[in-house]
Amino acid sequence: MTTAELDPSESASVQSYRGLVARRIAILVGLSVALVLSVAVDVSLGPARYAVGDVLKTLFAPGTADLQIRVVVWDIRMPMALLAVTVGASLSLAGAQMQTILANPLASPFTLGLSAAASFGAALAMVLGVSLFPGAISLMVPINAFAMAMAASLLIFGLSTLRGVTVETIVLLGIALVFSFNAALALLQYFASEQALSAVVFWTMGSLSKATWGKVAVTAIILAICTPLFARRAWALTAIRLGEVRASAMGVPVKRLRLEALVLVSVLAAVPISFVGTIGFIGIVGPHVARLLLGEDQRFFLPGSMLSGAVILSATSVLSKAILPGAVLPIGIITALVGVPFFAALILTKGRKSW
Amino acid sequence: MVSLTLDKVGARYGRRQILFDASASLQGGVLTALVGANAAGKSTLFRRIAGHLRGAGAVQLEGAHDHELRYMPQDTGMTAALTVYESIILSLKQGSGGWRLSTEELRAVDETVRRFNISHLVDQQLSELSGGQRQAVSIAQTLVSRPKVVLMDEPTSALDLNRQYEVLESLRLYAEETQAVLILAMHDLNQVMRCCSTTIALAEGRTLAFGPTLEVLTPALIRRLYGIESRVERCSRGAPIMIVDGPAVQDAI
Ligand SMILES: Nc1ncnc2c1ncn2[C@@H]1O[C@H](COP(=O)(O)OP(=O)(O)O)[C@@H](O)[C@H]1O
Ligand SMILES: [Mg+2]
């Protein structure tokens, strides 16, 4: 990235570009600050009420705090707060790149059927006790969910390698997948016991309550692997937004890039979904917020969509604890309830076209 | 010196053969026009030369590498949330990988922006451009990396009269400076006569004629290409202009 210093010998257009870059960096810094604050508030809130000072003391000097608050802060609240960050960042980045490569503002892990497939996989485990990979009984639900989500994206992936398949076809197939998996899920629910049914319903609402340090680590590692792979393709991914023909005219191997990105996006989305269930909205809103704030130069759009997704999910996590004192509402519900009006306001007030 | 030779070039979409025999031998430094009726195969020939389509025959490039070829597609909308300046930078940065922009790169963008008279547009969003502005920006995107072979599909179709002259003159200067091969698919034959020193005439996927523009664009060829009666005269400043008399009478073809 360029530095922001102004050199009087430079032309007006270079200076104004440097100004634009400086503003974009400032926005990224602002989002980072918002994220840190949101995580801090998230950790200090919860059904058990502790003074902020005690929480801070436990965070920075765990040795001096008493056992109970230490367990609550370090083993319950921190993993939840951090999982909100990694999951928000992953789903938003996955949505951003799906929208980029499929040239469709509605593409997201949710609209392409990955979430629906994961819900169906999870329900298989909860209702029928069917494990797609025998052995790990304790991890049956997330493993089933992951396997189904990957199967759905493999299907999309396989289809997109066929000749003559356009991006529109892929998006339509994704929507068909959503309906199919939802129907299959409904069928399972119809035959489910009451206990299994409530487990399925709770899972599909999306919740961070099963957060562990292990899940935080897995999602963080996947982000750490995928992000540089996208970053290396930043210019090509930006070019693809000028249209397939223009991009290939610039020498971008569009087909190959699209397949590579689809693989990355599948893993990036499937793992968080299998941990937290359906948090549908982030994959669409995160990228749109980033696009409105930062434009689509991937050097800013890529970190921007991760940050905006993380901030939104983290702030939602805060809200899910603050709305009903003493209770933690499922985060998937809050994302949609609070996210939709916010999103609509953003799109309607920002004068220019967002797609 | 760059040269481009087309030897019996063919191309097909699936089973449908569009291009049968396009042959020409072009030298850098001047503008070459590619003319022909709608659906004659002009865009298809460009895609074939750019390597997006495969087919029979040979495209030979001398004095330039494959990556120094740039193709500007026919005008299509651009919806990306990018400013004009960003869209030109990204064209320059393709293939280079690095995120950092050097002063030379910024200078190259600046020079191109000035050359095509779009300095006043640099901060605008792509989606807010008019058709003509978009075309000018497209040209800048295509030339910012200083390619040695340039294929432009109807680069002036949306420009007003004055901008057509400006842009074609800038393109002519660019060819002269860089000794690049520039082929422009064009419909306005008067502009062709004024700015392009050589012309390729394409009909139904075959080159009918190729050579110095005034020798190619004869009334007989124009009748053959477009079914139009015309003659070439001189304007008050001595430049050749084509006068259209009207559709050819059937039995005259
Ligand atoms: N992608 C495509 N698939 C199939 N046929 C095509 C495609 N693009 C163009 N054609 C056909 O090829 C012929 C030549 O088209 P084109 O090269 O675009 O003509 P021009 O640019 O000279 O107007 C037309 O008949 C058109 O229908
Ligand atoms: Mg054409």
Q: Gist?
A:
By secondary structure, chain A is mainly alpha-helical. Helices cover 75% and strands 0% of the residues of chain A. With 253 residues, chain B is of the alpha/beta class.
Account of the 3D structure:
The complex is a heterodimer of chains A (355) and B (253). Chain A has one domain (78-352): Orthogonal Bundle (ABC transporter involved in vitamin B12 uptake, BtuC), CATH 1.10.3470. Chain A is 75% helix and 0% strand. Chain A has helices spanning 12-44, 52-60, 67-102, 114-128, 140-161, 167-191, 194-205, 213-232, 234-240, 244-249, 254-276, 282-294, 298-322, 331-349. Chain A is globular, with a radius of gyration of 21 Å. With 253 residues, chain B is α/β, with parallel strands linked by helices. Chain B folds into two domains: 3-217, 3-Layer(aba) Sandwich (Rossmann fold), CATH 3.40.50; 218-252, no CATH class. Chain B has helices at 42-50, 84-93, 103-115, 131-143, 161-178, 189-195, 213-216, 219-226; strands at residues 3-13, 16-27, 31-35, 58-62, 69-72, 149-153, 181-185, 198-203, 206-212, 228-234, 240-247. In chain B, the strands form three sheets. Chain B has a six-stranded mixed beta sheet with strand order 5-6-7-3-8-9, sandwiched between helices. In chain B, a hairpin with a 5-residue loop joins strand 10 and strand 11 (240-247). The longest helix of chain B is centred in the last third of the chain and has 18 residues, at 161-178. Chain B is globular. The N and C termini of chain B lie far apart (40 Å). Chain A binds chain B through residues 1-2, 10-14, 16-17, 20, 231-232, 234-236, 238-239, 241-243, 245-246, 248-252, 291-292, 295-297, 299, 352-355, and chain B through 50, 52, 67, 70-73, 76-83, 85-87, 89-91, 93-97, 99-101, 106-107, 109-110, 113-114, 119, 122-123, 125-128, 138, 141-142. Adenosine-5'-diphosphate binds next to strand 2 and helix 1 of chain B.
Query: What's the architecture of the largest domain in chain B, going by CATH?
Result: 3-Layer(aba) Sandwich
Strand content of chain B: 25-35%
CATH fold-level name of the largest domain in chain B: Rossmann fold
CATH superfamily of the largest domain in chain B: P-loop containing nucleotide triphosphate hydrolases
Termini of chain A, distance in Å?
A: 25 Å
Percent strand of chain A equals under 5%
Count of runs of 4 or more consecutive helical residues of chain B: 8
- Return Rg of chain A in Å: 21 Å
Q: What is the domain total for the residues of chain A? A: 1
**Uncertain residue ranges of chain A:** none
Helix content of chain B: 25-40%
Largest interface: A-B, 37 and 45 residues
The CATH class of the largest domain in chain B is identified as: Alpha Beta
